Amino acid sequence: MQRTLIDINPGQALGFCLAITLFELLTYMASDLIMPAMLSVTSEFEADARHVPYAFNLYLIGGVCLQWLIGPLSDRFGRRRLLLSGCLLFAAACGATFITSSIEAFNLLRLIQGMGLGFVVAVSYPALQEVFREADAVRLMALLGNVALLSPLLGPLLGSLLLEWLSWRTLFLGLGLAAAVAWLGLYVCMPETIGVMRNDGQQQQPVAFNGRQIGQRYLTLLGNRNFLHASLALGLMSLPLIAWIGLSPLLLMQLLGLSSREYGLWQIPVFCAVIAGNLILDRLLVSHSLPRVIRVALWPLCLGLIALIGTALSSAALALLIASLSLYAIGLGMSNAALYRLALFASDDSKGLVSATIGMLSIVVMGAGGSLIAAVGGAESLESFALWAALGGLLCLPLIQRFLHLSVQSPLPPVTSKDDH
């Protein structure tokens, strides 16, 4: 049986996946790859060093600020057209940075570059769900999750190496050229999913774009308790990892005095654990429903977070903290893509709007939670970080339990196994 829901050949399906993967990788690398060069940027523009975090925050704001609009636009005009526009915008903004002449223009371009991430979340993720059958769509989401998580590990190290031979302007030019390659791949291989008859006999019609109706649809969606539970849980369950990404440079390099190489080596077990969780997810999808997969994943996730609390109370060494984080990360890798899929279909509304809302809610939870952990002393000691990160992550449990309980009352179709394809 064909593995896709619309009529495309295997080569086109592979090219579509590779192009989306490249575009997502570039949107994350544009943030992490440039961080080692930011002091050089401010020095060249004779600007204050405070612009270093400003540029990073503007990039994150760009990733969130337009998702509410991008999703409904893709429901109206089609995923393909919007994703091509977003990729082109990202490529142009990266290329324009090569010739920028002021810190103000640089910061504006960082904001525009960040919007590329919004197109990835609000357009490409729903497109994957509409092109591929359920089990394959979940596997692909897990793969894209690996891309997002590897970037903060590899980006700064790779950026430091490249800056030994290239200027920061050349790095941006390279990102722009690579984005042009991604755009070409999407142009050639990406199918349209809006208004196309699927192999299962269903057809997703374009949704009229009306500002007042869109606002009402967002309010209705936010009133959907089942959807809200899943979206907030996605942010909370990822919070310990996001807090680690943001605070580990301070904890390891500034507090413990580790070198940048040692810092990178201590990251490897945590991110490899997420990948291991995704591989376990792939195996479980053959014989388990998505709610069952999540219940299984909660065991390592919760045990890892409880071990983190034990680390905080015992003033244990860095190795135990990393081991606890890694156990938690296995559970996160097993559950994240599955919970996203269930959240996406917790509402009957168009998937562009639903995906945009999931992205905005989860990112707000992660951003606010990470800032709160830092504010209460999470960057001052390993023990403080372990305690507050674990407590924040455990807040996802009642939301997930409530969501799964409601899902049993109105179950989704079971995951299609490999044997059915």
Give your account of this protein's structure.
The protein is mostly helical and 421 residues long. It folds into two domains: 1-193, MFS general substrate transporter like domains (Growth Hormone, Chain: A), CATH 1.20.1250; 222-409, Growth Hormone, Chain: A (Up-down Bundle). It has helices spanning 10-32, 38-44, 51-65, 67-77, 79-97, 103-131, 134-162, 168-189, 211-222, 225-255, 260-284, 290-314, 318-344, 351-378, 382-394, 396-409. The radius of gyration is 21 Å and the shape is globular. Mean pLDDT is 84; it is low at 412-421.
The number of helical segments is 16
Fraction in helix: over 70%
Compute the separation of the termini in Å: 4 Å
**CATH topology name of the largest domain:** Growth Hormone, Chain: A
Q: Which CATH class of the largest domain? A: Mainly Alpha
Q: Can you give the mean pLDDT? A: 84
Which keywords apply here?
16 helices, Growth Hormone, Chain: A, disordered C terminus, mainly alpha, single chain, 421 residues, globular, 2 domains
